[in-house]
Amino acid sequence: MKTIVIACGTGVATSTVVVEKVKNLLQDNGIEANIIQCTMNDVAGHADHADLIITTMHLEDNFSKPIVTAISFLTGIGQEATEQQILHHLK
Amino acid sequence: MSQLIQLLRPTTVFLDLKPESKIDLLTFLSGQLQNQDIVYPSYANAVIAREKIYPTGLQTSVCGVAIPHTDPEHVKMEAVSFASLSKPVTFQMMGMNDQQVEVNLIFMLAMKEPHGQLEMLQELTGLFQNPDRLMELTRASSVEQIFQIIKESRKDEAL
């Protein structure tokens, strides 16, 4: 099973919205994945076993893992493109 | 019942503010929450520091919004503060390295639990995707109107 790390600054606010959207997206596409919600500071600790990192904050690309920025899940602008990006990385 | 409405209080809604700067605005709103015993005195500096590292400005189709917040340890009880600005202030945009957005509407969050406020957060993002209600919020001239618009926004979602 794939592991997705979903992070925001505090690990309590915007990542919560993103987790819910990603869960629905996975369900709609019949994908099972393990989701870890954490703070940006904790991404480093989870990155090794992540297949995909999704954030609402800018993350320096130091992890050799695919990173998707999911601001569109908050504003709705460009949401479909973000969903396609996520699905692409989970194939 | 709308979670957002429950967390928003008439005493945490501020209309037509004209802050000199983002710091000025965040200090004012934090001070109001502190006076109402919603956050600890450490909240103000924590929210300002966090905004620098993890900015919360968002560009919607209508206007700039921001959702400043910080770590749960600075929060006594969960609440949301709303402010409309008659003079927009510049925030850094969330998720971007160095892009800016002129912000007219602020939702400052005092949050304690992960997952605890999913419904409120979904209502907020629903509102950010609702151009008519956002426009109404920028024009509202009373606290009652703000509550009414947010209630209507939730009804729009349910349709």
TrEMBL record, chain A:
Domain of life according to the entry: Bacteria
Record's keyword terms, sorted: Transferase
One Pfam family, short name: PTS_IIB
GO terms, molecular function: protein-N(PI)-phosphohistidine-sugar phosphotransferase activity
Listed PROSITE patterns: PTS_EIIB_TYPE_2 (PS51099)
InterPro entries to which the protein is assigned, alphabetical: PTS_EIIB-like_sf (IPR036095), PTS_EIIB_2 (IPR013011), PTS_EIIB_2/3 (IPR003501)
Signal peptide annotation: none
Start and end residues of each PTS EIIB type-2 domain: 1-91
GO biological process, one term: phosphoenolpyruvate-dependent sugar phosphotransferase system
Protein name: PTS system, galactitol-specific IIB component
TrEMBL record, chain B:
Residue span, PTS EIIA type-2 domain: 6-153
Pfam families in the cross-refs: PTS_EIIA_2 (PF00359)
InterPro entries recorded: PTrfase/Anion_transptr, PTS_EIIA_type-2_dom, PTS_SugarTrans_NitroReg
Top-level taxon of origin: Bacteria
Protein name: PTS system IIA component, Gat family
Organism encoding this protein: Seinonella peptonophila
